Amino acid sequence: MTDEQKAFFLDLSPNVRLRMTVAEEMRLDPQGEVFNDALHDKYILMQREAVNQQNAAAKTLVISDIGLALLLFGKNIKIPGTDFGIQDIPAANEVLTVSATFGFLTLAMAFLNSQSYQAILEQFYIRRAAKWGIDPDFIAYGNIFSQVYLKAFRRKMNNSGIDFFGPEKPYVIFYSLLVVLLCLCWLSILALHICVVAAGTWHSVSPHWLSWIFAGSIVLM
User: Fold this and answer.
1) Closest Cα to residue 45, out of 165, 144, 193?
2) What is the pLDDT of residues 201-210, one digit of tens each?
3) What is the pLDDT at residue 5?
4) Helical segments of the chain, H only
5) Within its chain, how far is the Cα of 193 from the centroid?
6) In sequence order, which residues have a C-beta less than 8 Å from that of residue 157 and are 6 or more positions away?
7) How far is residue 135 CA from its own chain's centroid?
8) Cα 89 from Cα 78, distance rounded (Å)
9) For labelling, which of 90, 97, 110, 199 has a CA lying 20 to 30 Å from the CA of 152?
10) Amino acid 62: pLDDT
């Protein structure tokens, strides 16, 4: 192995390491014979599929959490067309607890997968935007669904070049506060999910040894 081929060992997050690795791979293809428009279009399709899987997992998680919350904290709601209530279904607590937990695990994996595809795609736009010195985000937004409003809330909108219009201090304070509150809201949703699943797991615990295996599996997921 030559000096040029030696790997650098840096303390990087997986997402940053992936981005830097793709950038180096693209550097090996200066003519764009491999990382071309055809490959770019295929990555777009794969990223959209990953987002669809993410959305499906999110729907499953929300429905499971709502059902478990109704079972644990609500009244015995009757199932339409029957005389049975939710609380009358055998092992309903255990089934909904597993569904909610597995739904969260699936959502987390789907989210990481979609973010990884997005990280690869963004390297295409960085290389393309470098020719004109423009912000690659404005190229990416045409192909990748993103939370564009978060970019509008930034103190510096163009992080890779000239920022044409600088915000005044009241704007920075107000929208920084909005971003913090938004992050707290998402953390609250995560906390609510954990509380509901924890309550479902607690109600499933009994002296029988199988219940402890069940609880351990839920904690692991």
Assistant:
1) 144
2) 888 887 777 8
3) 58
4) 14-27, 37-73, 92-129, 137-140, 148-152, 169-204, 209-220
5) 15
6) 135, 151, 163, 165
7) 24
8) 11
9) 110
10) 92
- In this model, does residue 79 exceed pLDDT 70? no
Distance, CA of 5 to chain centre? 34
Q: Do residues 196 and 69 lie in contact, with contact meaning Cβ atoms separated by under 8 Å?
A: yes
89/181 Cα distance (integer angstroms): 39
What pLDDT, in 10s, does the model give residues 115-132?
Answer: 999 999 999 999 988 888
Q: CA torsion angle for 93, 99, 101, 105 (degrees, to 10)?
A: 180
* Euclidean distance between CA atoms 219 and 97, whole angstroms: 11
**pLDDT-derived band at 53, boundaries 50, 70, 90:** very high
Distance CA 38, CA 73 (A): 53
Ramachandran assignment for 81, one of left (phi > 0), alpha (psi -120 to 50 degrees), beta (any other): left
Length of the chain: 221
State pTM to two decimals.
0.81
Residues forming beta bridges with residue 78, ordered by sequence position? 85
